[in-house]
Amino acid sequence: MHNTLPSLASITSRLHLRQLRLLIALSDHGSLLKAAEQVALTQPGASKALQEIESTLGAQLFTRTNRGLEPTELGHCVIRYARLIQTDLTHLREEMLSIMQGHGGRLSVGTIMGAVPLLTDALTQLLETHPALSVEIVEDTSARLLRLLDQGRLDLAICRTSISQRPDLYDAFNIHEEELAVVASVQHPLAGAQSLQLADLADSRWVVYSANMPMRVTLEREFHDADLRFPLHLMETTSAFTTLSLLQKNPHFVALLSVDVAQFCTRFGMTRILPLTLHTRSEPYQLVTRRGTLLSPVARLFVDGFARTVTPAV
Fold first, then answer.
1. Residue 198 contacts residue 222 (beta carbons within 8 Å)
2. pLDDT in tens, 142-178
3. What is the layout of strands, in order, in the sheet containing 106-111?
4. Distances (CA, A) of 24 to 11, 35, 72
5. Dist CA 257 CA 280 (whole Å)
6. For residue 116, what are the contacts with CB-CB under 8 A and spacing of at least 6?
């Protein structure tokens, strides 16, 4: 195998889609014979194809064990991208077919947890006029959503560019001021209180975002301004469902959520908004696209519709 990685031009000129299908089949079955059958090759043909792939990439991708073929660390990496390419080709065909049939195409959009209600409202309006539109929604942190934008895996995202070292790489406009609320289980001992101070919850176990995330920074500032020690024992998650599940199972836990999410959960009896006033302003949500990227017609339709239906944050 090569000591250095071949150039991108070398890889793209020598690598074939059928070879990527073989890698996926080898990962799924761990057997050269079964993988060969899946991609309609003879076993010798599959063996030769694997050798060609490894020669093209300059790396050993599988090792033989008593359990069959197992991917190396580099093999796992290559297989992961092979699956992504196969998924992208599937989406390409679906979107082309949808456009040819006069439907709406496909939209991939990312969102941070607090903006989920805002996004679902906007998508509901879009689907009323484009009912055949296929939509992929990815909920994650701003940092991860921006990486997906960079990779071309999202058309747009509702997040914040301030966490990026290169916010100039994005086109973004403020769309919604975020208000925060402290929530807990309806069984929380203070759920029926008329008024609370942060000190009343200082000893509670908090469900929070990871360090350096805007919502976490807001909570830390609130504790600092109240001259209270920030809680030591935290539950960190970026998942709304995990947050709600923790609150349901642990009546003494509390969490910081956007008011939009908190009101949604409280409306359905899942949580209670505690009567605690927060004084720190949070950064507004932004509608973000990759600068210089030509948006698809359906993505442009979403952006234009969103711009008309929201009151831009200042």
1. yes
2. 999 999 998 888 999 999 998 888 999 999 989 888 8
3. 134-139, 106-111, 156-159, 285-290, 170-176
4. 18, 8, 14
5. 14
6. 139, 240, 260, 261
